[in-house]
Amino acid sequence: MPSFAIDSLKTRRRIVHGELTALAQRAADENRAFTDAEHAQWEPLSQEIDAIDRRIAEVRDQEQREAAGAATLDELNRRPVEFGKFPAGAPLTGQAKDLDHAFRSAILAKNPAPIEFGTENPRSNYQPGVEQRTLLTTTATQAIPSDVFAQIVTHLVESSAVMAAGATVLTTTTGEPMQVPKDTAFVSSALTTEGASISQSDPTLGVNTLKAYKYASFFQISHELAQDTGTDLLGYLAKGAATSLA
Fold it and tell me: What is the CA radius of gyration of the chain?
């Protein structure tokens, strides 16, 4: 029999359909088209009818899926499984007969001999069909493997803007200080009348001393890590050192 949800949807559908029928009948009796007010009432009622029909179809599909699932579980639960025996109807193979005899001997005769057995289907040793579990991918005992991406993703950093602008690089043999002469003021010029003496103006000179400085980075990795890593770890470290110096 239909569910309470479908009954409620059908009741609402009859009410909305009655309102639509009344609007159409009123316009037909007066032999005219819908007024603006009637058209404004018709559109939401028509959309509600469509929405109710879709919801009824969804509820029926859900009920059918739930009924099919319940029937499957009932069938599985009704299968008899006796202790020490395989499910009824399953033929016992040679290994199954040996296991049946060993279990009966251990229980009835208290035989202390160990019982060893294997199976081609490790998912189920007791009954066929669907097995139910409550495990998730976050469960501590889950068997989902982990993987590592084959590349190391490097975050963006700013490098030396001075070097990128084309700075002049001076190289010395021993890193000794280097004096660089420079000017701090130019020669000045002045408006001079004819026949007048020109004022003397000399440039101002100075010296800048450039010194050598050492920048270094240091890190250690094991030989095993360098050999076993699945990424280009050494290339990444070399690039990181260069970025740090830049």
Answer: 45
